[in-house]
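All the exercises in this workshop are built on plain-text protein records. Instead of coordinates, the fold is spelled out as a row of discrete tokens. Once this layout is familiar, the rest of the handout is easier to follow. The record below serves as our worked example for the rest of this section.
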Amino acid sequence: MVICSLILALMLNGYSSIGAACTIFSASNDEMILVGNNEDWEHNNFSIVFYPEDSFGYGHVAFVATENYLDIRAWINTQGVFIDSASVRPSNVTIDPDKLFIHYNFFNRVLRTCSFVNETIDLFRHFNIAETWDWQLLVADSYGDSVVIAAGSDETVWYVRGNGTYQLITNGNIAYPELGQSASSALRYSLAENMLNEIGDNITITNARDVLDAAHSVWIAYSTVYDLMNHDIYVYFNHDYSKEIVFNLDEELAKGGHAFEICELYESVTTSGSTTIDSTITTANTTSSLDSNSNLLLAIGVSVSIVLSSIAVLVILMKQRK
């Protein structure tokens, strides 16, 4: 139990502060594959960080807490794979003694190595992830595939595949609905579901944004729409959907590693409508590369993760020798 708790704490860097009221969906037709996300939280101090491809794997972007780059919320990589989580009421998963616990940030592993949904499922099946799950994941890819990964009522991990034009989660475990959910979660699910059913195959950026607008709570820190085929990212701040800031993942990664604080971006945009980041935001407001503080924070975070991962591996090996 001690070993499991230690490794779970290490692995869940990206899950440890999951918002209590998130809405996440994927939607696709023959021409477009979109993902929408409302990040509900009591503060709005978040950044968007771009990590170019390196020897560890694919380039990607992450939405993180500004004061802690290990507090990761949502990711998308250059292969068009998206992953994000929503908190749910806790339930248990039986541990397989023949599998190791993943001993570092699992979001990072997925985004570095996976090109489509099935590869993500294979990773989950290869490792023990946690004994107690209080979150569920939505994973989508640029081929139109999606899956929700959650703890089921039989104490196993369930992989609920998408069908139709969309897949949706809020904060009710769709693999274990008997756990129940808050009235807010149920309402947000119903509002988003009704709009997605009404949209049908008419999937557009505007329609996806309107779904997020309809299902937002008072705690929304930021919202995003991801175009998984074109790698475009549409960002909205503090449930203000009148202004959107647009990034292209490939273009941003070509500039090297860098970050933006989302609130500062919005303070720099004074007009309503869509804004491409390069045409409006200047270095007086943000920086085109990570500043020294961000670099230091990122370096410290990576170093700590490596050290803690090594400790976890040593603990596992000592246990196995016994």
Notes: Confidence is low (pLDDT under 50) at residues 1-19, 279-322. Residues 2-321 form a domain with the Penicillin V Acylase; Chain A fold (CATH 3.60.60.10). Residues 226 and 304 are 30 Å apart (CA to CA).
